[in-house]
Design brief:
single chain, mainly alpha, two-stranded antiparallel sheet
């Protein structure tokens, strides 16, 4: 059974007598602590220790992270500095944890240096050769990943190719160019990151630069609270493939919504059908004008004929959005979700992920959502 170091947030202090008296009554730290205290212990993953020092309580650590993220502190060093200066962070009693981690890291580094100093293996590789072997191993791993992804994409595209091939073979007379079979080899221009293989090169649109990034998703309540009800992270620039999965994930938490509002990037017939089959009514924009590059002083391009909409579900969705009721409801989307991302970026200062790997990035995005929700609920409670 794990043991925890006892802590008491109401521990008396010399001057003033109570540490909490240094904080205003409406400070968000009080709300974060109260919210974290309601999290059941079964929600935490804890290492079972049979000996050694007791662990710090997971509620204590979670409260520190949420409070720090909500106040724009994401770096471990900045959080450490805040434990000396910020009373709200000191209220979470985490200073000793940072000191313990620093001591543990220093001890491990000293132990590694002693092991290296006593290593006299005559079979050891020279330092430069060892670095090259490490780089070669990383490149081999990257190539294997690209080849595996190419084969997986080819297998996914093969049924559609077989269907097109059968239709092509059934034609008589002039048949045109035969469908091209899917290639299970990665193209020469395909790239992968050696430091974060899960990430992908993507950009928001043709008017923006290319970045090594993840695509973070958030579903926001449009009934006035502007709280994030669920999140998702995918390693693709396209929003449509993860649309249905992100919304249906709410079934295990807050429950499925009656209506979902989404922009044109989420327009997918398959996702719309999945949501409707589960009783969710999606309102998705159909088509939008091409974005202009910022500070583009070139003459505007000539007028182009708008793309013709032929798919029945798109025509039905466009017709539905032209009705007064659906149109007024869809107007809530921009004033609901866009401010949330603006607050996370500009007010909280979160503009990039600090971890690597899809699983860790997903966890970090969930933590950001919790921090935003605590900040928002504290503001709603004070209003």
């Amino acid at each position: 059974m794990s043991r925890f170091i006892s802590f008491d947030r109401s521990q008396p202090y010399l001057l003033p007598p109570d540490l909490k008296s240094w904080l205003p009554a409406d400070d968000m730290a009080h709300f974060v602590v109260a919210a974290v205290e309601r999290v059941p212990m079964s929600a935490f993953f804890m290492q079972v220790r049979t000996g050694g020092k007791a662990q710090y309580h997971p509620r204590l650590m979670l409260a520190l992270l949420i409070f720090s993220y909500a106040n724009g502190l994401f770096s471990s060093r900045r959080i450490e500095r805040a434990t000396y200066r910020d009373i709200g962070v000191r209220y979470d009693r985490i200073k000793a944890l940072r000191e313990k981690l620093a001591a543990d890291i220093a001890g491990l580094m000293e132990q590694a240096e002693r092991a290296d100093a006593t290593d006299n293996d005559p079979q050891a590789l020279p330092e430069e050769l060892a670095r090259r072997e490490t780089l070669k191993a990383k490149l081999d791993e990257a190539c294997a990943r690209l080849e595996a992804e190419a084969k997986e994409q080819a297998e996914v595209a093969r049924p559609a190719y077989e269907q097109k091939k059968a239709a092509y073979d059934a034609k008589t007379g002039r048949r045109g160019r035969a469908p091209k079979p899917p290639d299970d080899e990665p193209p020469p221009e395909r790239q992968v990151s050696l430091t974060d293989p899960d990430s992908r090169l993507m950009r928001r649109s043709d008017a923006h630069e290319v970045r090594q990034a993840y695509n973070a998703q958030a579903v926001v309540c449009a009934e006035g609270s502007q709280l994030i009800v669920t999140t998702g992270v995918v390693a693709t620039s396209a929003d449509a493939p993860s649309f249905a999965d992100t919304v249906l994930a709410m079934e295990k938490t807050t429950g499925l919504p009656a209506t979902v509002l989404a922009d044109t990037g989420y327009a997918s017939g398959k996702a719309v059908r999945r949501l409707r089959d589960r009783g969710v009514d999606p309102l998705v924009a159909i088509g939008r004008p091409c974005a202009r590059r910022p500070y583009d002083f070139r003459p505007p391009p000539g007028e182009k004929e708008p793309r013709r909409i032929t798919k029945p579900w798109r025509l039905a969705m466009k017709e539905k959005l032209e009705t007064t009721e659906a149109g007024e409801l869809y107007k809530l989307r921009k004033q609901t979700v866009e401010p949330v991302f603006g607050i996370i970026k500009s007010v909280m200062g979160f503009r990039r992920f600090h971890l690597r790997g899809l699983a860790k990035v997903t966890t970090e995005w969930i933590l950001i959502a919790h921090a935003y929700n605590c900040k928002r609920m504290a503001r709603l409670q004070a209003a």
